[in-house]
Amino acid sequence: MDLIDEIKKQSRWHHYIVYSSVVCFISLFLSWASVGFLSASGWQKIGVGFLIPIVYNITFARDETRTKDLAYIVNIFALLAIWRYISNTSLTIFGGEINFAGEGAYLALFSFIANVYFISRIEVKKK
Predict the structure, then answer these.
(1) Which of 15, 32, 37, 100 gets the highest tally of CB atoms within 10 A of its CB?
(2) 1 Cβ partners below 8 Å, 6+ apart?
(3) pTM for this prediction
(4) pLDDT tens digits along 94-108
């Protein structure tokens, strides 16, 4: 309960970061690759690697004295990795491009986009 109490003391932008990180965690259970009736969740694909940014975002949200620089780096790196995954799951067939990325990958992408925005809204207190 100590983690929840520390997050409750923070600003609403810190709360939004936690909510967005929880949504990203939930996206790992959704389909990250889908081809007709076959699909694979984030746990079966590269989604396990995104536990590190999810956990970092939650620990960032509990402490207001941390700088935003590392949070930006972690979230932008996760954004680029998900974007690369989504773009690499495309396949060109008969001159048309088909994307096999599932809704879980897109939900994680939007979650990290939201986190970058929420981090930008946090005001750093000068000591």
Answers:
(1) 32
(2) none
(3) 0.84
(4) 888 878 888 888 999
